[in-house]
Amino acid sequence: GGSSSTAFSGEKPEWSHLATAFYPYDAKATLGSAGLSLTLPQSQTGKVADAVMVGAGNEDDGFTFRNVCALLRMDIPASLGIRKVELVRDDRVTGPFTVSSGFGISSTAPTSYLEKRAEVSGTPALSGEIVISVLPSASRQIQLALTRSDGKVAFVNTAFPSGKAYEAGRIKNLGQAGASLTFCDAALVADPTDSQL
Question: What is the rounded CA–CA span in Å between residue 34 and residue 52?
Fold first, then answer.
């Protein structure tokens, strides 16, 4: 966010030693032998602050944080009237995951179609820079559904031009959503049939 360092405040038992820290706060976070267990929300604000950062260090020397998410950035012109952007993948996109002491990411298979997506929505329509935070993946495909205020949907399904996967700490800049998008009445393939009726 334009600064190489920042300060946090909080409380801990006097006898304890901090060795791991994370941001943003997750009340359900746990620290176990496998590492730090956190949750990436499916519904997001569209800001980079949704990305999970984990830090290792100590209280005397400070913590060095790493972004353990992959980020997708795009610009949305207000003239398109887009109210929701959804990223869909075949593997886990959001939900519970574990960060090891070496900052490796592990997660289980998705238990719901909702964990195969991340979304940003807004009223009024979205405009400007939108950032979606997702869990790292070997996938090199970008699958987006952009929903207009009238309910019509445009789909983007293509490979990343760079050929690189969803890597932790990498920002994929998708540029500006184009006026050439084709909007139609549609439901996302990952949705169960009862939600499409």
Answer: 18
Closest by CA position to 52, among listed 108, 120, 131, 127? 131
Closest CA relative to residue 42, chosen from 102, 98, 120, 107 = 120
Residues 125/149, Cβ–Cβ less than 8 Å? yes
Residue with the two structure tokens 């990343």: 160
Q: What is the pTM of this model?
A: 0.83
Per-residue three-class SS string for 147-158? EECCCCEEEEEE
Cα angle 191-116-181, degrees, rounded to a multiple of 5:
70
State the first-to-last Cα distance of the chain, in angstroms, to the nearest integer. Answer: 43
Note down pLDDT in tens along the chain; length 197 residues.
Answer: 556 677 767 777 787 777 788 888 888 899 888 989 999 999 999 999 899 999 887 777 777 888 999 999 999 999 999 999 999 999 999 999 999 988 889 999 999 999 999 999 988 899 999 999 999 999 999 999 999 999 899 999 999 888 889 999 999 999 898 878 889 887 655 566 555 44
